Amino acid sequence: MTAPHVSFEFFPPQNLEASFRLWDTVQSLSPLNPRFVSVTYGAGGTTRDLTRDAVATLHKSSGLNVAAHLTCVNATRKETLKIADGFAASGVREIVALRGDPPKGTNQFTAHPDGFADSVELIEALSRTGQFTIRVGAYPEKHPEATSFDADVAWLKRKIDAGATEAITQFFFEADTFLRFRDACAKVGINAPIIPGILPIENWQGAARFARRCGTKVPGWLNDAFVKAVRDDREDLLATAVCTELCSDLIDEGVDSLHFYTMNRPELTRDVCHALGVVPDVRLQNVA
Ligand code: FAD
Description:
The chain is α/β, with parallel strands linked by helices. The chain has one domain (5-287): Alpha-Beta Barrel (TIM Barrel), CATH 3.20.20. The chain has helices at residues 16-29, 48-62, 77-89, 119-129, 149-161, 175-187, 204-214, 220-231, 235-252, 266-275; strands at residues 5-10, 37-39, 66-71, 94-98, 133-138, 166-171, 194-198, 257-261. The chain binds flavin-adenine dinucleotide.
């Protein structure tokens, strides 16, 4: 098995303790030589400034390729593009461009009257600036708001045609889910790489809740296994085994890049990467 390329997602820290945790995570994962690391943008644009600061600091101090997430929620076009300009000014030239989730308390996306109506409009505008490599989100089990699986795949094609060069998927629990989606994308002529988003399961209850919110199917066998593992205090062992197996099944099917949702905790991601043959590059071990 050839070791895959990896990338890591972080969220911006909200306080000093969380900043230290993020920094520890970055230091722990940097030697794995990620293709890029990305920083999320809080639902409803709530972490706008925190994302900007985290992205700029990571770019300056870590030596890693940093991608900033950016959504259209709650902002005019002008404001959104100003944030993108700010990323560029701090040297960050990679963006994960998203429509974004509605703010807490609502479950329907409503575009700002002067804002981008959807992700395609945002991607087109970012693409016109010529400043960014643009990645987008993709949904192997269809986005909860999509009218059908096929309509969702067609929408992804529009996002790629608008100027995105790569898609990162929502997390899923079985390799077949991704492979079916990859086939459907190829069938409609999507040639851009589709990178599986991998969620190492730090906490089963939390992961299952998150999955329900995202429309990710929780297989019965996985739930049963975690219920037993939690009872026997072996949750970590199971989480490492399950995640490693999912990744190696994907690699066996030709996947060469994986994107890990780290939740700012390095241990599981690092252990899975090691098991997949992604080992520290000694030249990168003393980053910052
Ligand atoms: P889109 O793909 O543009 O739209 C969602 C679905 O709705 C589509 O799949 C499509 O089927 C349908 N749709 C939307 N508009 C149209 C239209 N005009 N015509 C037809 N169909 C349409 N959220 C955050 O708030 N911050 C983040 O940092 C963040 N990071 C993410 C990273 C990744 C890799 C992923 C997969 C998701 C992330 N999200 C984040 C969640 C994301 O914002 C939500 O899933 C949101 O509801 C959809 O955003 P999108 O850009 O993927 O939407």
